[in-house]
Design brief:
This protein has six helices and eleven strands. It is of the alpha+beta class. The strands form two sheets. The protein has an eight-stranded mixed sheet. A three-stranded mixed sheet has the order 4-10-9, with no helix packed on it. The longest helix is centred in the last third of the chain and has 24 residues, at about 170-190.
Length: about 250
């Protein structure tokens, strides 16, 4: 069983860098390949997200181009984002902010080599396909995802990995740090000040921080490797209804 929290999935392919236009072409996801989460993403999985929040949409919550999944570090914007037969193809235009300039230099120097997506699973769009030749007895066929962002990362391994490996005092301190940051973001969101873009960034950051707290509390990866999950092991997701009620008062 897959949860619908904020999840990450890595990709390793940079196709081209145009230093003149400050554009980078990458594949954010590959279709029909079993990844480390035993997932197989099918062509069409991003179709709805691209329609609703892609570059041609009228949404003010477009799929973001970030660094390390940090919603306060938007390094540019996607100028091309579509599915082809291979995967999810993207062309990112790097901005001229400090974060955009830093990312541009890191691309040039070969420091940024990999990318990752921030997304949510849709439970009824996942099918477990039995295959006794595969460890675990099969794989998860993903027909649709909710895509929030694509990030340039220094390391392509799942950024959640270091979280689940924490022990003892280090783990306690990290929980306290994330909790404080989460509370600050929640207060800022419930105040409702700022543009729709700012409030959306706060909402996405809260989802990301909440997913890290869940990992630390359960000490298990976000993605369950089996197709069954015991209910007692699941922590309830963040109560968005409570937040929205406060905002509407």
């Amino acid at each position: 069983m897959k949860n619908n929290f904020y999840n990450l999935k890595e990709s390793f392919e940079i196709k081209d860098i145009d230093t003149g236009s400050r554009q980078v072409a990458v594949y954010l996801s590959k279709f029909d390949a079993i990844d480390s989460d035993m997932d197989v993403i099918k062509k069409g999985a991003f179709k709805k997200s691209l329609k609703e929040r892609g570059i041609k949409s009228t949404s003010n919550r477009k799929i973001a181009f970030l660094r390390h999944h940090d919603w306060e570090k938007q390094i540019g914007k996607f100028v091309e984002l579509n599915e082809d037969d291979y995967g999810l193809y993207a062309v990112g235009q790097l901005g001229r902010s400090t974060d955009g300039d830093d990312a541009f230099m890191d691309y040039q120097d070969g420091i940024i080599k990999e990318h990752s997506i921030g997304f949510q699973y849709i439970p009824d769009k996942i099918k477990f396909v039995k295959d006794e030749t595969i460890k675990g007895g099969g794989y998860n066929e993903i027909k649709e995802l909710i895509l929030w962002e694509g990030s340039a990362v220094t390391f392509g391994s799942n950024e959640h990995t270091h979280v689940v490996e924490m022990k003892g005092q280090e783990k306690t301190e990290h929980i306290e740090k994330i909790s404080k940051e989460l509370n600050l973001c929640i207060r800022a969101l419930t105040n409702g000040n700022g543009t729709d873009e700012r409030l959306h960034e706060l909402e996405m950051k809260i989802k990301y921080l909440n997913s890290q707290l869940i990992l630390l509390a359960t000490n298990d990866p976000v993605i369950e490797q089996s197709n069954e999950t015991k209910s007692k092991d699941i922590i309830k997701p963040f109560d968005w209804n409570a937040v929205m009620q406060k905002m509407n008062k």
